[in-house]
Amino acid sequence: MHPNAHVRIAKKVAIDIGRADLSSTLEYYSVIPDKWRDFPHHTGGRGTRRIVRRVLRARNNYIQGYDNKAAAELGVAFHYIADEHVLVRGSDHRHTSYESKISRARLNTQYIDSMEGKKATLGYITTKMSELSNRRYLLTPETALNTSYQICTSIAKSVFGSKTSSELQLILIELKKICIEKMKREEEEFVNKLIEAARKDKESENSEGMRKVANKIIKTLSFFDFRFSRNIKRYKERKHLENSVKSYYRQAALTSKPYKDWYAVETPELSIWTEEVKPKLLTVESVVKAFNLDKQRIKELEEEAKISILRFKDAEFVKREDVPKIVAEAKNKVEEYFKTSPVIKEPKIEAFVEPSELDLESLLRSFLDDGRLQRAKNIEDDELEIVKETDKLVEAAVREYHIVIDFEARTILHDCADWSKMLLTKTFCKHIGKLFLSLDKEKAASMLRKIYTQKDTWQFKTYSGTEEVHVQTLGSGRHE
Fold first, then answer.
1. CB of 288 within 8 A of CB of 282?
2. Are residues 40 and 92 in the same domain?
3. What's the pLDDT tens digit per position in 438-462?
């Protein structure tokens, strides 16, 4: 076709698909093959392969975020598509006249074919080009121009369509769900095997005389101890779920393969530490640390036959289902103790609940007493300025005091007089309480959970003004 016809088609396609920003690129590259002296239609050679190759490159560039490169490839494809409609060879005396009539023809809005995916789009191209090659008569100039525009627009809509396949993402989500159910069954089976092995080990230890000696010999010869210890280690490291996770990613890769040349594949993440498959057994040490309990009290509960402790060599476990009972019993004992001890305040309920279950108010109460929390609420909003707020750093000023909370360094810096009393106990003054009350509730709760669960590794320090931070001073009077 005449360059003018190529440009008209490219310009209208850009507008119709809502990408007027790419119009100049599409127009320029829709005539560039003429400068290359690439005229397959002059000799009767068909450009279907050229078109397919350019369309695939365009889609690949678009998925990677290179929209202008995608438009460049698509512009070249448009050229070959339009030239396929010139059913007159270059040697034919009618060729020049026919192309001239096409360039002057009226360009009308056409019905645009809707398609999605690599198979459908490439199949559409092949079908349309095949129909043209099998024609035995010339198209009218207006039909040639408008049919070219129709095919180019249909292909452009597909190329610049959704980068992800909703169909594939639903399949991958379902695949993940299936794998998680499989991992839950594996967790159950593995734990049952450990419990059974521990039971047999205990029975052999409790046997008497020659039978006990024989059991020890059998264990040694069968490498029982080695396998048992290895399985305990695997369980602690969650490696008994490793094969299922690897299998999931292999299956996801195979499922995604047919989509990869046309879509950006977003495989839902899955790891052996996923929260959706919780360990059935927890080490006694982890329970003691998480809930700040007395280890001796857990052993007392075992002696009272209220729970059972599973002993595997050097490791001691409790069943997850027994944890609420352990915490409740420990709380009851604490309550009974503090009823007879009026000097010390009763601990807060936050100490006996999973951090993920605590709301913002409960989390704040774990760091502030009732008086300080109320005084934090009494501070006016215009007395606080949040200077910087990211997931890694929060900088603020309350009146003339500075606050810096660095989540990477796990450090809180502040400079009011009351704060110096908080450093050893790692609790908050009213100013820091006000800061968290002023943040988005969900974000504040998430930040407090991080500090709460990692409290031992956090540093509470006095702000000296020499730190590499910038906090604007507010107010002029000191109010404590």
1. no
2. yes
3. 999 889 998 998 898 888 889 999 8
Those residues with Cβ within 8 angstroms of residue 331's Cβ, 6 or more apart along the chain or in another chain: 349, 352
Which tokens in the block code for residue 181?
Answer: 């159910």
Same domain? For 101 and 8 the reply is yes
Q: pTM of the predicted model, to two decimals?
A: 0.56
In Å, what is the CA distance from 227 to each residue of 197, 220, 222, 223, 231?
10, 11, 9, 6, 6
Domain count, the chain: 4
* Residues 146 and 178 grouped into a single domain: no
Domain that holds residue 124: 3-159
Determine, yes or no, domain membership for 476: no
Looking at residue 156, what is its pLDDT?
94
Taking the C-alpha atoms of residue 117 and residue 123, their distance in angstroms, rounded to an integer, is: 10
Q: How many residues does the chain have?
A: 480
Contact 261, 118 (CB under 8 A): yes
Q: Which of 231, 247, 276 is at the close of a domain?
A: 276
Closest CA to 300 of 342, 332, 347, 339: 332
pLDDT for 346:
43
pLDDT attached to residue 171: 94
Say what the alpha-carbon torsion angle 446, 448, 453, 458 is, to the nearest 10 degrees. 130
Cβ–Cβ under 8 Å, residues 319 and 188: no
> Which residues of the chain fall below pLDDT 50?
41-45, 210, 217-226, 334, 337-338, 341-352, 469-480
413 belongs to a structural domain: yes
C-alpha to C-alpha distance for 74 and 55, rounded to whole angstroms: 6
Q: What is residue 320's predicted lDDT score, i.e. its pLDDT?
A: 86
Assess if residue 428 is contained within a domain. Answer: yes
How many whole angstroms separate alpha carbon 377 and alpha carbon 393? 23
C-alpha span between 464 and 471 (Å, rounded): 12
